[in-house]
Structures are given as C-alpha cells and as structure tokens.
Model the fold of this input.
Amino acid sequence: MGFGQIWRDIICGLLSSSTTQVLLNGVPGECISHRRGLRQGDPLSPMLFILVMDVLGHLIAQAASEGLLQPLSARNLQHRISLYADDVVFFLRPDVSDISVTMDILQIFGEASGLNTNLQKSSVLPIRCGDLDLTITQNLLPCALAEFPCKYLGLPLSLKKLNKSQVQHFVDRIADQLPGWKAELMTRAGRKIQVQFVLTGMLIYIVMATDLPAWAIKAIDKIRRGFLWRGRKEARGGHCLVAWVKVCRPTGLGGLGISDLKTLGWALRMRWLWLQKTEPNRPWAHLPIHVPDQVKAFFAVAVISEVGDGEHTLFWADRWLHGQSISELAPRLFAVISKRRIKQHTVKEALNNRAWITDIQGAITVGVMVDVLQLWDILSDFVLQPEREDKHIWRFSSNGQYSAKAAYEGFFLGATLFAPWERIWKTWAPPKCRFFMWLVAHNKCWTSDRLARRGLPCPDGCPLCDQEQETINHLLVQCVFAREFWFILLRQVGLQALSPQPTENSFLDWWERASNATSSLVRQGVNSLIILGAWILWNHRNRCVFDGAAPSVAGALVVAGEERRLWTTAGARGLSLLSAHLPGD
Ligand SMILES: [Zn+2]
Done:
C-alpha cells in the first residue's frame, strides 16, 4: 500500500515483540506474546486504524477525480465518504456503475488491509430515490433497507425535523444522570457545579449540531432547576429562590453562570459559520448551514474582514470597508441587489471591471443612484493586495478568533453589570458561603419580612434583638447584635473603623464601602472576613429560630474564630494576611 520498508519493519517489530501481562490481585502474571497482530485496545491500533482508513478515503477521491464516480449533484459536493473509526458512510448515486465501482474499491481495500466490509451489518438509506433507483440498489447491494432518521456518531440524522420522541430521548438521558441519594447530601453550591458541568455539559454535543425545540429546553430546564434547588427532578415555585432566567446569566450579570441552553446552542453553532468563513476548503463549507436568524445577525456584527486578495470576502454582505458592510453604507442600493448575488459575489469578482454595477436589479430610484455614486467614490481608491489572503476577525475576543465562550458572552453585551459579583465570586470563601452571599445580594433569603409577605409562619421580630422587623439588611448590619458582632470581629484584625454605623441601611453598600476603604493588600482578606461574618450571623440566627438557642454575641464570635481558623487552613491566603492573631492563639 505504498509504505516503505523501514516503516514496515518498525511496525512488524512492534507487533512481534509486544506482550501483555494480566494483573491478578496486583501481581503481574505470565507474559502473553502477541502473534496475531493488532487487537482492539492496543494503544497503537487507533493510530494505525486511522492511517489505514485514510487509504479508503483516498481511493474514493481518486475514483471520483478519474470520473469513475459521477458527481453527486450539480453543486460541487465534495463529501463522498465520512469516516469515523469503523463507522463509514458513503454517499452514492443509485446507479449501476457507481455502485459497482464502490463495491470494487471496498473489495480491493478489504483484500489489501484485511478490513472487509460486512454487508449484512450495513444498511442503505435512500435520499430522494425513486422506485427504479431502489430496485437497482437492492439488486446490487445485499444490505438492509433502512429509513431516516438514523443514528450516526451518537446523533440522530434526519432529512426532516426531528420528531418529539427522538428529542425526548435526550431529555430522558439528562434525567437519568441525576445522582439519586447523594443529591440530598450536596450543598446547593455543589449541585450548581453538577448542573453546569454534568447536566449542561452532556448537552454540548447535541446542541452543537441541532436546534433543540423550545419544549425540550423547557423540559431540560425543569430538571436542571429542580436539581439545583431541591436535588430532585422537580421543584415547586417556592423552592426556587431566584428566577431561572436570572440563574442562567453570567456571574458578572448577577447570575450563577449556569449556561442558558438556547444561547449556548447559538454560540456553539456559530462555530460552523466561522469555519465556513475562515476555512472555505472544508468539504462541507459550501453547504447551507441552518442557524436561526438571530445567530446570522449576530455573526454579521461580530466578524469584520480585512481584504487582501478579495477571494474569500463577500462584496455585499461582509464588513470589509473599515469594519462596515455595504448594506450599512448604501442601504438603498443594497435593497435592489438579488439575494443570490449577495451570497455569492466576492470582493475580487465584484471589483473586477466594476462588476458590482451589474448586480443592480429593477428600477433605479434617486436614492439608489445617490448610493451608487457614494459607493463609487469609496471604492475608487480601494486596491486589492493579491499577495495577501483575506483575514476575518472576531471582534469580541482579544485574539480575533472565534471561541464559544466569547460568542456566548457576546449575546449578553450591553447588559447591566451586577456590582458585587467580583466581591462574591472572586473572594476566597467556601462555595456554599458564596452561594449564600449571592442569595443575600438578590435579597432572596427567607427572613421574616419575606416569609410574612407570602403569608408563611415567621418569627414576629428580629430573633437576635427582638426589637425590629427582620430583613436581611437589618439582620446583617442594622441590628444592634450584628453591629456589636462586626465591631469585635473587625477589631480582632485592627479594622474596627470599618464596622457598620447605626445609620447603615444596606449590607451591600456597607460591604462595598468597607472593601474600597482598605488597601488592595488586605482587601481580599477583608472580603473573606465579611463573607465569613455574614455566614456566621445567618447561621446564628437560624439556630435561634429553629433550635431555640439564645442569641449570644460571644457565642457567635467563638464560632467565627473557629471558622476563620478552618478557612485559613483550607487556603484563604487573604485571611491569613490580616495582621492580628486569632483569638486564643
Ligand atoms: Zn435585630
């Protein structure tokens, strides 16, 4: 097959000298020498397999270029064979000569490589075939006749939109992934990670390929939401403390950073548009790519082109004139250009003898005329650089390249920033405490004001001072108990000047001021300490409400000291930098 002697010797040497040992109770057994060549699971075998299968691809390409196989369609379809491991798909015309040529190639390939095709295990899937075509095919190919949708590489392939039961399969798989008994033992912060990296991660492959229908996204979101808040498949409204749309925002915008499935699918599928633009030699690059209009629109905004030879930039559609497109510069002219021309005409073709003028169709109004003249002016000093290829730049990333992350974040451009996000998510604190702070920031903790509003049983007043109505701001900064607690806690590190004043109304405002008032050297530590203090106050309050404990500043401070020691041991560097020693040291 064209491999040189040296290469063959190396491979033969590897094969004839390799051995296997079986570990039995940790003790390697006798050596078993391999005399039967490669086997499944050999580290060498996948690589060799790819090399061998590549030959099949080349044989088919050769047959096509020599005219032994007819073109698949009037369009320049290059993709005749798709190989993935031992999954092979051939695209064939239902024609006697094409089928027999392919069978011959498979025969030759099988004899040379030992990889024989098992026709019994193969199937024929007709795409727009007449009865006559089918008869020819069945006479020549003794394979089972199957129908779309079929499964290839784990994805359903279909000529039509997938029906409900085919999509339901993906929803069910997500539900199957929920860890049963363990969920109750996980904190919400732990379940958040499970939701993002397991439940959402599993979907990446499918949403990269297809548009999940709205009902499926809703069903999957129900599972993700139920698991986040309750550790179960389903949760009622009352269990879900923060609205799901908010949860699905990036952390910088006030969410938990769990991916929004619709946007995630858009961002991932934009990759095909990007590859189509930047790597036009991919075999599928000229096929139509179905993405929603929003994705096309966003892509048009996100990519600008630097024209070199003008061969891979579209004259009418791309943004190639100082980051602007002709549809923006000359909208009235753009409106009278045919859709086909917009999709096809490259800058090089259009500029050649001003061929773009011939793209204009229909009546030329004064507006169109003005646009033509303006464009004429703009283009008059534009020169192609034939020695340089066109370059496409993704505007929303620093390196000018598309990434799914940059595309995903792009969909949130212009949204209002959530002020405390860095203090919550970038500060060292156990994840469950940061999750709690996130709930505080959205005022979603079950303090008595919120319970009362919903008509739920609640403590009459603040369980710590018994003087005022309990709100999250009261509990964390306004309450006399809280202020005494903060004063002593901060005094332990010599920062008592930061403690909340009696006039303080909002915990978040106080936190921001206290954090900004410290030098950058200790800011991390102060932020950790404030999260720690708020967490201790909240737990102290819960012990008073649910276990009937008596409020005690001294008691809360003892717990805080213990917790501080644990956090420092666990790696809270900022905390250990705070100068003063721990009480009891
Ligand atoms: Zn109080």
